[in-house]
Amino acid sequence: ESTFGPYTGAATKALCMPLFDQINAAKVHHNKLKKLLSDLRAQRKSHHMRQAALTQRAPSQAHDRRQSASCNT
Q: How many structural domains comprise the chain?
């Protein structure tokens, strides 16, 4: 059993790190997660905007096709 009891691997490594380094590592990790979340939100927003544009355009195109078909007869 290690000096830290049942902890092994990453937990032992984290406990062995100076507090300053632990805080900095946590900040870096937090910033990476924030950026990832921000990127995912932007991706979802652009996806919804594309979908909305497609659904708005589709009925008008169908209407245009019906009009051109009725003009040809």
A: 1
